[in-house]
Amino acid sequence: MSEHAVSIDVREIMRCLPHRYPFLLVDRVTELEPDVRIKALKNVTINEPFFVGHFEQYPVMPGVLIIEALAQAAGILAIKSQGERADNELYFFVGIDNARFKRQVVPGDQLVFEVTQKTVKRGIGKYVARALVDGQVACEAEIMCARREV
Q: Active site: which residues (predicted)?
């Protein structure tokens, strides 16, 4: 195991992120280096609520939800890098660049999210993110998250 291998379960993820079912899209964090990178997982099952209406005969995970899951992983990295989130703070997904979809994601797949921090300035972080299935890139993008008081 890597020196940065960790196991952050869904209960700890829920302490970081305000998202809840059906919109919490990260199941587990397996590696974390604060201010550097995160590796996280999402197990995709046929029971996902979006499969009811997203191509009945050929269920495919919507790309926008893969992007959202990458943003959630980036948010966890940001929060863990800053030393937790205050009760009056949220991290918002504020930007996306160079998003590309390379492979469909279907029930039974396990998405592996790899997010690397590029920069953080004035509470806005930029991240390079990719989602993989069986080692193949399903999606890649540059994501921006901003910490704001609410």
A: 54
